[in-house]
Amino acid sequence: GNFDHGHKCDIALEEIIRTLNIVTEQKTLCTELTVMDIFAASKNTTEKETFCRAATVLRQFYSHHEKDTRCLGATAQQFHSHKQLIRSLKRLDRNLCSLAGLNSCPVKEANQST
């Protein structure tokens, strides 16, 4: 019931925070994160829509960078760091979708700014 859902949300939020801390600490040759307006939402946007949008932007980012040719030519240590970062972003995507209560979020173009 509600306890289970609330408990799952708490666990997902804890993992999201932990993952964001890891991602912001990692600096890799292969990922130059663009500042994305993933949490900027109009007044009529629901929490679920905001979580879905964030997950969609992350998915677009890591899908693009997963096969980044700069990373394929990186040193072993740089490539390992890059793979760990991509894994963290995938976990973050999964947790955001979980908070939205969906298995996957619809893919739309996301607004980006630098």
Automatic annotation (TrEMBL):
<keyword id="KW-1015">Disulfide bond</keyword>
<keyword id="KW-0325">Glycoprotein</keyword>
<dbReference type="GO" id="GO:0035771">
    <property type="term" value="P:interleukin-4-mediated signaling pathway"/>
</dbReference>
<dbReference type="InterPro" id="IPR001325">
    <property type="entry name" value="IL-4/IL-13"/>
</dbReference>
<dbReference type="GO" id="GO:0042113">
    <property type="term" value="P:B cell activation"/>
</dbReference>
<protein>
    <recommendedName>
        <fullName>Interleukin-4</fullName>
    </recommendedName>
</protein>
<dbReference type="GO" id="GO:0045893">
    <property type="term" value="P:positive regulation of DNA-templated transcription"/>
</dbReference>
<keyword id="KW-0964">Secreted</keyword>
<dbReference type="GO" id="GO:0030335">
    <property type="term" value="P:positive regulation of cell migration"/>
</dbReference>
<comment type="similarity">
    <text>Belongs to the IL-4/IL-13 family.</text>
</comment>
<dbReference type="GO" id="GO:0008083">
    <property type="term" value="F:growth factor activity"/>
</dbReference>
<dbReference type="InterPro" id="IPR018096">
    <property type="entry name" value="IL-4/IL-13_CS"/>
</dbReference>
<dbReference type="InterPro" id="IPR002354">
    <property type="entry name" value="IL-4"/>
</dbReference>
<dbReference type="GO" id="GO:0010628">
    <property type="term" value="P:positive regulation of gene expression"/>
</dbReference>
<keyword id="KW-0339">Growth factor</keyword>
<dbReference type="GO" id="GO:0005136">
    <property type="term" value="F:interleukin-4 receptor binding"/>
</dbReference>
<keyword id="KW-0732">Signal</keyword>
<dbReference type="InterPro" id="IPR009079">
    <property type="entry name" value="4_helix_cytokine-like_core"/>
</dbReference>
<dbReference type="GO" id="GO:0050728">
    <property type="term" value="P:negative regulation of inflammatory response"/>
</dbReference>
<dbReference type="GO" id="GO:0050776">
    <property type="term" value="P:regulation of immune response"/>
</dbReference>
<dbReference type="GO" id="GO:0051239">
    <property type="term" value="P:regulation of multicellular organismal process"/>
</dbReference>
<keyword id="KW-0202">Cytokine</keyword>
<keyword id="KW-0075">B-cell activation</keyword>
<dbReference type="GO" id="GO:0005125">
    <property type="term" value="F:cytokine activity"/>
</dbReference>
<dbReference type="Pfam" id="PF00727">
    <property type="entry name" value="IL4"/>
</dbReference>
<dbReference type="GO" id="GO:0006955">
    <property type="term" value="P:immune response"/>
</dbReference>
<dbReference type="GO" id="GO:0005615">
    <property type="term" value="C:extracellular space"/>
</dbReference>
